[in-house]
Specification:
Blueprint: H1 2-5, H2 22-41, H3 47-64, H4 69-86, H5 90-108, H6 116-127, H7 138-151, H8 156-168, H9 172-183, H10 192-213
Helix pairs in contact: 2-3, 2-4, 3-4, 4-5, 5-6, 6-7, 6-8, 7-8, 8-9, 8-10, 9-10
Length: about 210
């Protein structure tokens, strides 16, 4: 289970194009920055406890601001990242919780964070086992990713997960094109750590794709 969820929802981090009040934006920025620090900077063994603490913070956010789609997206991202770090029998339960949180965000504002809920939900459908164990569905993942690309065609996270999906489907030439485009994505102000971590993931996957094509 740990390996299954290790790459799920590693943070779809585009800045929101929808107005949040100053307090909400500050809270969102704090969660995003802490997530990147945990995911990319602290030792692997320390991540489960760190994500658990951050999950409590995101839970407070959604409880206090249940009408904010961005809060639900980030609760899902943190919960899934916690599942990946912790592994074990609880990973699938956390994935189901994240799925529900993302579906909630879509009812509030499907365009929040440039459609990040679509990308994050697709990542879950791509990685969770299918029936009867879980809800995984590669066709559903592709449908969601195409919706995400309509809203954010040049985002590094959207293109990374699209490239990863294509790789899983053995569509290697298409995957290479998506990943090469991801490496050209514009940097996101205030997201330097997340961008650096994501670019390493893109480069590693691209290297695997190139091996398939050689």
């Amino acid at each position: 289970m740990k390996r299954l969820f290790a790459c799920v929802l590693l943070g779809v981090l585009s800045q929101s194009v929808w107005a949040l009040d100053a307090a909400d934006q500050q809270r969102l920025d704090s969660i995003q920055q802490r997530w990147a620090q945990i995911q990319y900077q602290i030792p692997e063994k320390q991540r489960p406890a760190a994500f658990e603490q951050l999950a409590a913070q995101t839970s407070h956010f959604t409880a206090e601001r249940p009408d904010v789609a961005e809060a639900w997206i980030w609760q899902a991202i943190v919960t899934s990242s916690w599942a990946g770090a912790e592994g074990g029998l609880g990973a699938l339960a956390k994935a189901r919780q994240a799925k529900g949180d993302l579906e909630k965000s879509l009812t509030l504002d499907p365009k929040a964070l440039q459609g990040s809920a679509y990308t994050s939900l697709a990542a879950l459908y791509d990685r969770v086992p299918g029936w009867p164990i879980g809800f995984g569905d590669s066709d559903k993942a592709e449908q969601l990713l195409k919706q995400a690309l309509q809203l954010n065609p040049d985002g590094i996270d959207t293109l990374y997960f699209w490239g990863d999906h294509l790789y899983r489907q053995k569509r290697y030439a298409e995957a290479r094109a998506a990943l090469q485009k991801a490496l050209q994505a514009a940097p996101r102000p205030g997201r330097e750590s997340a961008d650096a971590g994501r670019r390493k993931e893109v480069a590693a996957l691209l290297a695997d794709v190139n091996k398939k094509l050689d």
